[in-house]
Task: structure prediction
Amino acid sequence: MKPMDQVLDTSAKIRSMEIRGAGRIATAAAASLRDFSGAIQAQSLDDFNREMGKAADILLKTRPTAVSLSNAIRMVMKYNAQDLLSARQAVVLNANRFIEISEKALERIGQIGSRRIRDGATLLTHCNSLAALSVISTAHKSGKKIKVIATESRPRYQGITTIGMLDRMGIETELIVDSAARSVMNEVDLVVVGADVITANGTLVNKIGTAQIALAAHEARTSFIVAAETYKFSPQTILGELVTIEEREAGEVLADISKYSHVRVRNPAFDVTPHQYIDLICTEVGAIPPEMSYQIIRERLGWEME
Ligand code: RUB
Result:
């Protein structure tokens, strides 16, 4: 396999959602850049930089919403080497560091988030988020008796992956269709979801359906928390950049559209939850109100206004 084929293969897997979820996309991209850096036959530092730039670009274009992807790529590509050997070493170091930080963050988020869960609680989660599942599994492992209601998360049914994971952990679980969220909300003590993006003002971008769950939780006075590594926060939003919401193919929603001549199927993959509906964001550096997102971006992502 040519070195670039490995990058193309990872990119194809991310695009087709064989690799999915903001955290998993980010670590897969970091690992792909690391492996590519060791495999390319660059003759000079310029060659190396150019090839790395191409690979980073390909990975960056796979899915447009999750900021974890661009943050991970930026962290891996932040090398300022004088020669080829040190450039390679820096990429490997950066990528491994990112992957390690990301694993540790999940563990820490679990510890921090699980403190919000009381014994006997009923939780609701949407889609399939490793960060949200870390909160849930840590609470379970600490001996709290919990029940989880999981949505299907149409159209890609990531909820089925979630119930599989919960089942393997031995957690009592109920599966509902997405539109049943309001019906069960009065039984729920806490909603916990993951994040694809958190903006400078604490707005959450996550799997389509999250916003109406947040709205239902707000109306039912049910707590709504987000579990997210700090690399899910978006530095670009400080400059007012809008988050691109991925629109996926119609075929994911309706198999045969051809028999309808006046119908267009819309398939936005993510939606936007305003910060007013979020009680807390559990990150690896602590549980913060959404209004503190700006500080996280300034302090954790080392990003300065230019
Ligand atoms: C996945 C999704 C998840 C977040 C967080 O969307 O919306 O809630 O990515 O996941 P998709 P994690 O399936 O379209 O990628 O906590 O695992 O990063």
Summary: The pocket of ribulose-1,5-diphosphate is lined by residues 20-24, 66, 127, 129-131, 158, 194-196, 206-207, 269 (CB under 6 Å). The chain has ten helices and ten strands. The two ends are 41 Å apart (CA to CA). The chain has two domains: 3-107, 110-301.
